[in-house]
């Protein structure tokens, strides 16, 4: 399968941090000489970051165990001195404690600006490793090698990095773009079904508010996608990256359009907070949030029964949760207010107008409270 290349084109931003996303089977392991975009060795060579540099691979226990030796052997074979930092699996790793552990390791190894970090794992690893790269020595080069579907289609692209705080999710962070994103869908073979569906939730999001044809494709092909069919997975990863890159190209720092990617996240983040980030996954919470966002869109007259039904049906068909969990409206509102993007009175909501089209609306918490009260009865 040829390697696909998508450019995140930030040439219109204040600083041109444009970078390629390379997608393909074996993309990290194809050796030097495989041609432009042929593999990590070629990429390191052409980008110049390999010269004198060492690679600091930040990963999690599961990915280290499954694929650590593949990446290590490959990098060392390509002449790159490689050091691994392995973090525990799970959301609680996105914390000051483990960030501090990473800083200690980088200082101890005397990491310099000519060195680079590789974030090798899911969204948790990508976010914390990216933030360590953004802040250590005021910023050193980093590369994303995502290994979950969620990270392939969402978190590895766009430069949002950060960690959680007891007061809220992703409260500490920075926009910091990687030098490249290298996506090898073969890693997904070892991902369990729940994690695959978790990433699929963000894919549904792109179709729901930005691309009606893609949404139809997902409605017709969700079974093969969730059965790990290589071609369908390759297609949705490429399409999702194209959509996300298209949005980020226009609005890198979320001054406007990029907020559309928060469809389903207002209630989704609240659900994650109320579960204390345990027993629920990010994409699952977003799935609940998308159904809620579709329902409130209909209540406001922005949308029809058809959009609500189609969003709910694909979510249920994918094995994702669609029902709003049993918390009180007060609990939901308080959790929503802890989100970094809201003021005390209102929240910028992404409404769905019809499949593939969206609208922003500032909604008062009072209105959301009343609506929750009505539907939770
Ligand atoms: N930066 C962004 O723009 C952005 C966007 C969306 C989500 N996020 C963040 O991403 C995080 C969620 O990411 P996630 O869903 O990838 O979770 P995750 O990183 O916790 O990974 C999920 C689990 O899968 C395991 N795993 C990873 N790769 C594997 C593989 N190939 N085979 C088997 N197991 C594997 C991990 O060890 C972990 O246990 C959240 O913290 C969320 O806030 C960030």
Defining key terms:
377 residues, alpha/beta, Rossmann fold, Dehydroquinate synthase-like, alpha domain, 2 domains, seven-stranded mixed sheet, two-stranded antiparallel sheet, globular, binds nicotinamide-adenine-dinucleotide
What is the level 1 CATH name of the largest domain?
Answer: Alpha Beta
Give helix and strand order, one letter per element, not per position: EEHEHEHEHEHEEEHHHHHHHEEH
The order of strands across the largest sheet is 1-2-9-6-5-3-4
CATH topology descriptor of the largest domain: Rossmann fold
Structural class: alpha/beta
Distance between the termini: 52 Å
Which CATH-level-2 architecture of the largest domain? 3-Layer(aba) Sandwich
Number of helices: 13
Number of domains: 2
DSSP summary, beta strand count: 11
Bound molecules: nicotinamide-adenine-dinucleotide
- Rg estimate, integer Å: 20 Å
> What number is the mean pLDDT?
92
- Biggest beta-sheet profile: 7 strands, mixed
**Unreliable residue stretches:** 31-37
Strand content: 15-25%
Categorize the overall geometry.
globular
